Amino acid sequence: MVGDIGKPLPSWEEGMLDIHHINTGRGDSVFFILPDGTTMLVDASDGQANPLPAPFGMPTKPNNSRQAGEWIARYILRALQHFPEKKIDYAILSHFHGDHIGKVTADSKRAAQGDYALTGISEIPEYVPIGMIIDRNWPDYNYPAPIELDNYRQFLNWQIAHRGLVVEQFKPGHNDQVALLRNPAAYANFEIRNLIANGRVWTGKGTDTRELADLKHGQRLDENQCSIAFRLTYGKFDYFSGGDLDAKSRVLMPSSRTWQDVEPAAAMASGPVDALKANHHGSWDANCAEFLSLLQPRVIVVTSRADGHPATNTFQRMISKSLWPGPRDIFITNVTPSTHATTYNLDKAKCTQGHVVIRVDVGGATYRVYALDDNDEENRVIGVFGPYAAK
Ligand SMILES: [Zn+2]
């Protein structure tokens, strides 16, 4: 509520759904508290503390005294401060790029016990335990071709052996892989539907899927196009999350139709949603016209991490009433000076800096969006938007 401005975000309560888009300036990281208190993290930023050169030169938030993974863990511990058990039940990794799982550099910290570097996801359990990790290709990491994931692999092996970590491969089409763990019977109107991974997309019938790419004919999706996407539903409320999915060829030539158009395929499987985490940080090659017009989001959150997030044409698509009717509110976690100077109409965004929290009310009929100050760890509310009625 407006009375919350300047105060810390009020605590989550049983029956609410919280979606925290955590701004570290270093990648995607979204933390969920599901209605019965089950917790889920999607992606974890890169691991570095100091800014990279342009165009990836955003400052680490709140400051560069810690690596991004530690800042994320501390944010999660604050969000769970009233929970008797502070744990991440599920961590989903949308794909294997460094700004989502972590990136090893010469100055990466090392684990206190295991023989691996602390970066992104591998740093989180130093502070808050993870029960299950779900990624796109466990256990072989060979699609569409073998991938070098040595540090990630060593991290998983150590956590499996010493901390009881469970690792699973994301199962497109299923709606029971991420299940409520505390009190599922009270929330039969909650579901996470797995939509796509590695270009295998849900058909909308049962758990059936189909392949977009044909490896036998040399069709290889790239790492972004292999991203995991899911639709979260709570009562009338729906939220789409799709990592760094894109539709490059469709953006360049809107009339083209190719097997690489992972975005429209995922959106067709999903159907309209209330809220969207923009794909690929709002980059030029993602959130294509067809994707947006299928999802028709009322709220869009852009988790930016570089210059050009959101890209000027991508932002015009997001605000264009010719793609879908009705109002829409756009929230951006971070905007660099050069993006401010080049992405027109950014004054139409509701927020251009801060953590962005979607809080869905008990039952899922209404929700609000909170922008939080990301300069320190007080979680002070700097803007409250809504209430919105879920569609
Ligand atoms: Zn990314």
Summarize the structure in words:
The protein is an alpha/beta fold and 391 residues long. It has a single domain (2-389), classed as 4-Layer Sandwich (Metallo-beta-lactamase, Chain A), CATH 3.60.15.10. The chain has 8 helices and 19 strands. The strands form 3 sheets. It has a 9-stranded mixed sheet, with no helix packed on it. The chain has an 8-stranded mixed sheet with strand order 11-10-9-12-13-14-15-16, with helices on one face. A hairpin with a 5-residue loop joins β17 (355-360) and β18 (366-372). Zinc ion binds at residues 28, 97, 99-100, 244, 281.
Strand content: 15-25%
Give the domain tally: 1
Overall mean pLDDT stands at 96
Low-confidence stretches: none
Biggest sheet: strands side by side, in what order? 8-7-4-3-2-1-17-18-19
Put simply, the count of helices is: 8
Please outline the major beta sheet: 9 strands, mixed
The helix content, as a percent range, equals 10-25%
| Fourth-level CATH superfamily | Ribonuclease Z/Hydroxyacylglutathione hydrolase-like
The shape, in one word, is globular
Q: Rg, please?
A: 19 Å
